[in-house]
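Fig. S4 source data, part A: sequence.
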Amino acid sequence: MIILRTLSAVALLVSLAAVPSITAAQAQPSPPQRPDAVAPADKDDNPAATTAPSRGPAATLERLFERLAAAKSPEEAKGIANLIQRRWARSGSATADLLMTRAQTAMKQKRLELAIELLDRVVSLDPDWAEGWNQRANALFLAGDPIRSMLDIGETLKREPRHYGAMMGLGTILRQQGDDKRAMVAYRRALEIYPQLEAVKSAVDALKTEVDGRDA
């Protein structure tokens, strides 16, 4: 079990290392609060874009990540992050969206076995949907299965390397396992994407002296 845990953590951190560094001009995309399954139209999320030439969802998402990296306050960043999470919550399949909504309800009710069963169906139905894997990672973590949760985090990051929520989840698991150094790597990568993420900033501050001091 220890070997499996180590291999899982190393593989995920290798995948994080492959994600390019992020600047305000070149951004790449749950916190614990999970997004809803229904999102408004792009023009409602970004009114300024309605007068510009038509842009696809991917282009709009890229712009949101640029804004997230450049946000000057936690409040501004949170509003942008909410829009990003609403994009992530769109599967493109009405069936997958319905299953996701039921799974989220089951998680809120602490019916974790049902939630995992529903999310198994989600990832089978739409294996390319990063949020399906991320939500199952969350359910598995809550159910006390951090190893499978880390594996699903890896699947999430394969599909959406900018998923700061998945990186935050990885850091949390590694920290609980006592692997503070690798937890710091995951947290710092999340902050490159979402610099104003207060929960991660607090975690980094709590670990900084111990981890950086140990490496000094």
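Fig. S4 source data, part B ends here. Residues 37 and 90 are 6 Å apart (CA to CA).
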